[in-house]
């Protein structure tokens, strides 16, 4: 099974204040379906709400996402990278701060300069 990591991350981070959006992961193929509104599932052949072959992907809360990022920073195994990540997480908006630093950090890790 192959799962598109970018799509899964998007589904985990897409909190809908009105509760009209839902995301479903196929346990067989790894396909991710996203629906907006209660009747959106009518557009597919199989309604994932009625099948054991689909798993509802519940978005995570911001506090949970922050905990995951903090845990990653602590467990990354690279002191310089961990320090940069912790600094980014202490910013006013960690996700905004890390999005500007991640490409630079990612490049330095790829090239072994950390």
Structure notes:
With 114 residues, the protein is α+β, with helices and mostly antiparallel strands. The chain folds into two domains: 5-56, no CATH class; 62-110, no CATH class. Helices cover 45% and strands 12% of the residues. It has helices at residues 5-13, 62-75, 79-89, 94-110; strands at 21-26, 32-36, 54-56. Strands 2-1-3 form a three-stranded antiparallel β-sheet, covered by helices on one side. A hairpin with a 5-residue loop joins strand 1 and strand 2. The longest helix has 17 residues, at 94-110. The mean pLDDT is 77.
Structure summarized in a few sentences:
This protein is an alpha+beta fold and 114 residues long. It is built from four helices and three strands; from the N terminus they run H-E-E-E-H-H-H.
Strand content: 5-15%
Instruction: Report the biggest beta sheet as strand number plus sense, adding barrel if it closes.
Output: 3 strands, antiparallel
- Ranges where pLDDT stays below 50 over 5 or more residues in a row are none
State the secondary-structure class. Answer: alpha+beta
């Amino acid at each position: 099974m192959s799962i598109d990591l970018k799509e899964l991350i998007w589904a985990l981070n897409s909190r809908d204040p009105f509760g009209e959006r839902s995301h479903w992961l196929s346990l067989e193929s790894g396909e991710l379906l996203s629906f907006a509104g209660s009747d959106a599932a009518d557009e597919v052949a199989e309604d994932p709400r009625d099948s054991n072959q689909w798993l509802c992907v519940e978005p995570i809360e911001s506090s949970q996402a922050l905990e995951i990022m903090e845990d990653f920073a602590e467990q990354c195994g690279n002191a310089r990278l961990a320090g940069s990540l912790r600094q980014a997480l202490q910013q006013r908006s960690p996700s905004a701060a890390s999005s500007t630093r991640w490409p630079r950090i990612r490049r330095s890790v790829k090239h072994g300069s950390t």
